[in-house]
Amino acid sequence: MTAFAITATPLSDPLYYLRNAQQVIQLCLYHYPDLLLAHEQAQLHQLLELEESTQALLIRMIMRKGPYFRHDQLQYAEVPMLDQAISALLPLELVVEDPSLTLSQLCTISKRPECFELAQYLLPEQRFARSITKKELQAQLLTAFKDRERPLSQWWPSAPFKLLQLNCVELFERLRLLFFGNLYQSWSEFVLSELNVYRFEKVPFTKEDRPFQQRSELDVYLKLHQLQQRVGAGEAVDKVAADITESLVPPSIAANNEWLAYRSQRVLYQLGREAERQQHIPLALRLYQQSQHREAQIRHLRIQEKLLAPARVFAHAQTALQAIQQPEAQVSLQRIMQRCARKAKLDYQAPSKMALPSTELVLPRPAQGRVEQAVIQHFTREHIQLFHSENRLFTGLFALLFWPALFKPVPGAFFNPFQAGPADLFRPNFAQHRTTEIAQGFSQLSNGDYQRIIKKRFQEKQGISCSLLHWPSLSAPLLELSLTIIPAAHLAIIFRHLLLDLRYHSRGMPDLIELDTHTQQYRLIEVKGPGDRLQDHQQLWLATMLKQQLPVRVCHVRWQDQ
Questions:
Q1: Helices (H), 249-390
Q2: What integer pLDDT is reported at residue 1 of this predicted model?
């Protein structure tokens, strides 16, 4: 099974959004037929056989907020015969005419004058002031009728509009999940896109590499999403937590779907944070303890600091420190240990911050531009070039060298042909699933072949979207100079640090790189303007570079007029 071919539809086509949506449906039918029920497959196949104007109406509704739609608000130029299109959708049970709804929902759909007429019809003995608001009308109606469900024709036989309900929300949620691999991206984000604006790497797609292998995995993801939605909608976290057990990934699924198991741990952590915010401390502790997410472990220890003896918390933090390798998390744990050691009068000294080489500069304030540009102008010479590279040079070189690793078809990594990188890029086991490709990249650094490989990919992959590569920032001159002057051993040090935690380490690198063509040397410069200070992630990068004897310096700038 190979990746389903999707062709770009120009925006000049008035039905371009439908063409894109059709391809999403076809892709899901092609790659995931076994994850869709027989009647769902039948609905989708039958939909694709309908008149284009009928399909267009359904996709328009799916892209809008529903599930209820008034006929008079479904007017589209590409759907000239609305009633005929609706009639074609009804037998497929994709929409329902004259649906049951609550009085509250009916009031939401109705305009204020319509609510006034509805109130007069339902409460003929009451007198309503002409100035009464829609909210007041709704309150009086709900007081009299509660919030029971009835079809519109029973609530209001003479209603000035007809009503339609979208009856395939759950089906298209599943398609959206299969296609995007998440539910935070909307249909409109894709179907309203001009697909030929960007280029994407072609990644082979086999049945074994599919992110979802069973329908039950989709069900688990949807349940986890519902938990998050309930909390986001304001429901008390302790009520949501009562349903957590049945929503977590069953062991049988977790054993075969690592990325879904990781997602469940992250959701537990997020719910724990919400419980902590709502002051449900015992619940927060329980949720953090259930989660294997590293941030959950740190939050758990921070709560314990307030509840347990400092020496006991110190011991827990010390154990966690031995298990967690990521530098940012280690800094947090060391701070917990330092506080606990001070309270318990334990003999513990946290690692001291490394003294950073620094330069003080007093420069004229530029009329335009940032402080980095002023430093570039100060140091630039005929044989010295400076680039504002920040987090883009080394991540770009990393991407080009490890391109096969980034675009390896790994389960849970690629869902559709429009990804700028793997979905698991920032997950803990990214490197673990690509050991061969990563080892090959470091081997190329060792044997000197890396320059040829990177330059070749720079030409071949030019313009292809990549999460770690910002093409405008990686010019040919910068690439050439960097590969000529920066030693391979230094690149290996930086790349290994990146791989420790791609999420956090792809930021915080020094602002500037200085390249001297005479001495064939380089220097990394972190620029700090007036009142600015180093952040933790910047300190960690600088300390890592200094320990490995990479040339790095902090440049503190003051303006001459200060």
A1: 251-254, 258-277, 281-290, 294-307, 310-323, 327-344, 371-379
A2: 47
